Amino acid sequence: MAVEAGRRPRISAASARSHTRKDGAKRGLATSVYAGLLRKFVLILGAVVGGLVYKAITPPPVKVLNSPGGPQVTAPRIETRDGRHIAYKEVGERESAKHNIIHIHGVGGSRHLIFPVSKEFVEELGLYIVSFDRAGYGQSDPNPKRSIKSDVEDVEDLANGLALGPKFYVIATSIGGYTGWGLIKYKPERLAGIAFAAPPVNFWWPGCPSADVKEAWDTQRIGDKMTLRVAHYFPALMNWYMTQTWFPKSSINSKGGIENFNQKDQEIMKKLATSAPLEHWKESTQQGDFESKYRDIMVMFSNWPFTPMSLENPFEIPVHIYQGTEDYLVPVALQRHVARSLPWVTYHELPGYGHFLNAYPGFADGVVQNLFQDSRQSLVS
Questions:
Q1: What DSSP designation does 315 have?
Q2: Regarding beta strands 99-104 and 168-173, do their DSSP bridges make them parallel or antiparallel, or are they unpaired?
Q3: How far is CA 275 from each of CA 21, 89, 109, 294, rounded to the nearest angstrom?
Q4: Which is more confident, 324 or 245?
Q5: pLDDT tens-place string over residues 114-139
Q6: Distance separating alpha carbons of residues 205 and 214, to the nearest angstrom
Q7: For the chain, which terminus, N or C, has the lower number of CB atoms within 10 Å?
Q8: Strands, E, within the chain: which ranges?
Q9: CA–CA gap between residue 197 and residue 108 (Å, rounded)
Q10: Which of 136, 174, 63 is nearest to 295 (CA)?
Q11: For residue 318, pLDDT beyond 60
């Protein structure tokens, strides 16, 4: 039948349904192909991103001591109870010493930065002072399971290995202070006395007054705040954060770090660059920053199994804390609270002093003198 001019031909319903099904099938096939490709793309992208994230947060391998091409061991070492080894350095005559002192170094330290008691004082008092590379530093084996308690055990193993007797003195510098508190908690019977030089305060210790915490937190630089948050809440990201270049980092690991200290500290840091033994600069973090400096920060600002303010002193050990009022790393406000909480602590606040107390003239001799004077008074009483 002829189609009238100007009118479209009629299409039967069956024919229309047939075309619709074919078009729908084509669209469905195309959608399925696109969906499959999208899923593959998402999976590949996820794998790539996951691999990059894993690579970023995974610490680099430790530069194994005595391995081919790795750092070589030249220092005397003591074996620990778990089969690791810790390297040490001595001042004074161990066999004839009247008093034995173990020095615990801070972040980025080493056995070479031994507590600088004057030679005259060492001879006059019959001192034997030993400093050691803490786990992962210098020529001491790393400890992937490092904790406050494991560091305490390292100190005890060192004392036993060197036959320092049932009691010894301890001087804990900076972040080495967490080991000092650990000794009071776990091994107080081994201590003849202990002194802390600018020990850090953990902002997450229970019992710290919120007003004091806020005041102290507000004094911290943005890079230090962010680093401490990562160490406390997201320790798995610590290696990535300390090596990335997008966000500000801790004063100890930033290019402008020296500017984050007071004027006296800056002068000390400049002098140390030339006065510290060359071996210190070569060896301190030679096994990698993660197993030395970063793990230090992670342990210090973790959730502790105890709080220093809750400690007791059953053996009446002489305990001294030294704190500079211009220490930009350790807030004096929180240090005051720690000292107030412990009536058996002798607190020394040093006006105008910064963080690197050991390098201030006469400081080391004064610390030893105060420790021994307290010890004598304890024996008399």
A1: T
A2: parallel
A3: 86, 17, 14, 25
A4: 324
A5: 999 999 999 999 999 999 999 999 99
A6: 13
A7: N
A8: 77-79, 85-91, 99-104, 127-132, 168-173, 191-197, 319-324, 345-350
A9: 15
A10: 136
A11: yes
